[in-house]
Design brief:
alpha+beta, Thrombin, subunit H, 6-stranded antiparallel β-barrel, 7 strands, about 25% helix, globular
Length: about 120
């Protein structure tokens, strides 16, 4: 069984467009993080099979950067998603990315909980 964490953290995704050969850099947010994967909401979706450099950000700084591969895309105009599998540094991914996601959930759960009780 794989562990997934629902967290909306800022990301940057970078890949090379096959047709033009130009580098594409887009920003977005994570939908969830798994032990070896991420589902991300991006402004522009990379093609399935593309290798994407994924950076997870905290306070506008990259906390981790890994090579990933696009395994699926969902082209819903209101929420375009790319499913990415991590290709390298799995131990670091589990230690850094998963820990950051858990911290994000804890911080946002506390904020939401406190806001409800303030009213």
């Amino acid at each position: 069984m794989h562990h997934r964490i629902l967290a909306h953290m800022p990301v940057q995704a970078i890949w090379v467009d096959e047709e033009s050969g130009k580098r594409v850099k887009v920003e977005g947010t994570t939908e969830n993080l798994g032990e070896n994967s991420a589902l991300v909401n991006l402004e522009t979706l990379p093609p399935v099979g593309a290798e994407v450099k994924l950076r997870i950000l905290a306070e506008d700084k990259a906390i981790i950067e890994v090579a990933t591969e696009v395994i699926r895309v969902e082209r819903d105009p209101s929420k375009p998603l790319a499913a990415l599998t991590v290709l390298q540094n799995l131990k670091k991914w589990k230690a850094v990315a998963m820990e950051a996601a858990e911290a994000w959930v804890t911080a946002h759960w506390k904020l939401n909980y406190e806001e409800e009780w303030v009213n």
